[in-house]
């Protein structure tokens, strides 16, 4: 199922406009639409929790009130009976409270994380403490291995980059085993690079972006829609990222040429640590 994933700002005015557009779609939805919507909300909720295990997730269509801590939100369209779509707000956050002001059911909202269901559409969300279970101790104690820097090492990271050569732009992910302070790997070649888009640049802001590194590690980013506006300071957190080993924060970088290779100028836009 293809998704149209433009982000919406958290300001009240835009929220009201989007809500009004969605309201016009509700009247024509039939039973088959409800089944599609219920499957959509549950699948989207599971995917976001898998991508961001340290965050609570809420997917909601009707009106609601909420008080969330450290929240990022996106507007997602669920394709239903052609040519109509159903709009949902997807929210990731640390903790907080939620009150639904419309009908319940998975076709209208779905949530996951560490929560208490208070009934009547009221939910309290608690911080998520990730517990890592250590591997079992082997019967024979062996000397600890000394591999290269592990993917779980908190000193590694990824730059979100746009690259230019002969007027042609691309976007990709540049992985460094050793990330320097405030995205300071100037002039250094990455340990691994992968393309995200080769026929232009992606819109990093207000969208989910995904890539798979050669070792099979899946990397996902989620940036706020206003991450690139002028009054957002450099090196400020503007989103989240995650691979199959850990979650990361995304920071606004000072746009510049990070490195050059094969005639390409690779510009850093954001970095993840």
Question: Would you give an account of this structure?
Answer:
With 273 residues, the protein is mainly β. An eight-stranded antiparallel beta sheet has the order 11-10-9-16-15-14-13-12, with no helix packed on it. Strands 3-4-1-6 form a four-stranded antiparallel beta sheet, with helices on both faces. Helix content is 13%, strand content 41%. It starts with 11 loop residues before the first helix and ends with a strand. It contains two helices and 16 strands.
Shape, per Cα inertia axes: elongated
Quaternary organisation of the protein chains: single chain
Number of strands: 16
Q: How would you write the strand order of the largest sheet?
A: 11-10-9-16-15-14-13-12
Helix percentage range: 10-25%
What are the low-pLDDT stretches, counting only 5+ consecutive residues below 50? 1-32, 138-153
Largest sheet: 8 strands, antiparallel
Mean pLDDT: 77
Helix-strand string: HHEEEEEEEEEEEEEEEE
User: What is the end-to-end distance?
Assistant: 31 Å
| Portion in strands | 35-45%
What structural category characterises the helix and strand content?
Answer: mainly beta
Radius of gyration: 21 Å
Number of helices: 2
Q: Main attributes?
A:
2 helices, 13% helix, eight-stranded antiparallel sheet, mainly beta, 273 residues
